[in-house]
Each structure stands twice: as structure tokens, then as C-alpha cells.
Amino acid sequence: MTRPRLGFLGTGWIGRHRMEAMLATRVVEAAAVCDPDDASAREALLLAPQAARVDGLGAMLAMGLDGIVVATPSAHHAAQTIAALDQGAAVFCQKPLGRNADEAQAAIAAARRADRLLAVDFSYRRTRAVEAIGDAIRKGSLGTVFAVDLVFHNAYGPGREWFFDRAQSGGGCVMDLGVHLVDLALFLLEQLEVRQVSARLFAGGQPLARDDVRVEDYAVARIDLDSGAALNLACSWNLNAGADAVISATFYGTEASAGFRNVGGSFYDFEAFVDRGTSREIIASAPDAWGGRVAADWALRLAQDNRFDPAVDGVGTVAHVLDRIYAAA
Hints:
The protein is an alpha/beta fold. It contains ten helices and 15 strands. It folds into two domains: 5-123 and 292-309, NAD(P)-binding Rossmann-like Domain (Rossmann fold, 3-Layer(aba) Sandwich), CATH 3.40.50.720; 128-289, Dihydrodipicolinate Reductase, domain 2 (2-Layer Sandwich). Strand 5, helix 5 and strand 6 (118-120) form a beta-alpha-beta unit. Helix 1 (13-24) packs across helix 9 (293-304) and helix 5 (101-114) packs antiparallel against helix 10 (313-328). The radius of gyration is 20 Å and the shape is globular.
């Protein structure tokens, strides 16, 4: 069986990490890489010496590749995804799929129209900690989940200037960090309907006006689901948080609660727990090499079936929620 041939568009650190995870499955091969930075391209070619270095997406598509892995700045995600899908290539895209819901939905519509596989790198879904929480929810161990607290504080913030340009990024810490937790909550609760959203956004400690060109570095939001559950989100860049990162999600149920949290301020190490009254049971813990699992899953799926997967519709729902957070602030 011929392995799907992939093009890797953007080979910075995260692009190379996902590339390595996909190639480790041994069911796909790298045919092309593209990055304007010579060092990044060279590092990618070390992973796949047989791959060609090309100068853009057009050159990749001219090669008739089976899939494109998009890891470029956010402003390009939707357009590059649509262009690839329109040429019959499946796509794995870094988050966000689009800077707003219109862009995200256009990309999903292109995948449906082309009948090609599209997935987005919501990598936290495949941590053992999150999977353990999902098992507890599905088994009914928590009873009815009525509230969720979602927290993601990054003490450093992003290192690229385009993150701070709304036109290029689509938003600040909500678009960068909050999106992961909104996705997790809707994914684990299997909820696609949101009733109401309220939010406050800040930049440099000051409330952010709706017409302000700056992006938010601190945000709080309340998301009410049609099920009646309330999601409470807090996320930030450069917060005085006492650690490199504070990351957690806690699902409160009528019978028990379950959650995950990072360990020792780590961006990568997590533990999951179930609380009953005043007792806590740890149900998953570090170490856990989770970062590339969603990418590997896409590669394995592509090798079996390149057709459209309607599960990606949930990405559109997340994009709509983020739009409502920005509109409500």
C-alpha cells in the first residue's frame, strides 16, 4: 500500500514536532517542506532527507500531495487550508483554523465540499489526564455536570510580534490559550449549543474597549450551555501567577468532580483527579508524551481513509464561541 505523501507548510518548533510525530507512525511520508527561515527548513530536512524544500503552498500542491500540514501564522490558516482542500489534499492545521468563525466555517465547508479529511491540532484532547476525565464523564461517575472552571495563564506570553497584531492573530490570549479550554469543555461534554456568553477583556491591566486595536492579555468569560451548565474561563499572558504556567479544567458534577491541572508550573506535565466530598483520587499522572498524538491520529486516519470527518464541525462551534466572547466584551 502506497503511503500518503505530505507537505509540511511551516517548520518552526511546533511544525517540526508534529512532523516528527506523524513520520513516527510510518504510515505517511514527507515529500516537501516549506519555511522562510533557513534554519527551520534545515531542521525539518534532517527528519526527512528525501523531502524537497519548496518555496510555497503552490509548489506543494503542484506535486499532487495527499495531505498538507499547516503550521504557519494564524492569518494564513484558513486560506491555506481552503486552497489545499480545493486541490484535493487533506489538511492538518494548527489552531486556530481561522481568526473568526467565518474563516473557520469556510475551511470546514471546503473540506465537506472536497470530501477530504480536515483536523485541527487541539492537542490537549489526547493527554492521558483529559482522556481519564472523559472516561469518568461518559461512565456517569460525576452525575450531572453543571459547572466547569477553565484556567490557562502563561507567565511569558508569545514570542512572535504577529500574536499582538489583531489583524494577523484574530485576538490575544483567548485566541491563543482560551481556545484550547473552550474546545476541551465542549468536546468532553459533547455540547454544540451555547445559550449565552459574557466576557471582560484587559490589556496592560486596563479594560479593553471593543474598538481598541490592541489584543487582550487577560480575559474572563462566562459561557452558558443549552444543557444549563456554566463554563467559567480565565486566561492570560504575562500574569503574575507565581509559576511558568497555571493550567486546569475542573468539571463539577452532582455526584463527584473531575479535573486536570499542570504539575509544578509545567506546560507539559499534568495529573487528573476525581473529588468526592473532601477526598481526592489521582486517576492519571505525568510523565505523558502527549504533544504529537493528535497529529499522529490524523496521519493514521489519512492512511486509511482521506474522506471528510464531520467531527470537525465542533471546531466551528468553538470558533463561534470565541466570536461571542470578543463581541460580548
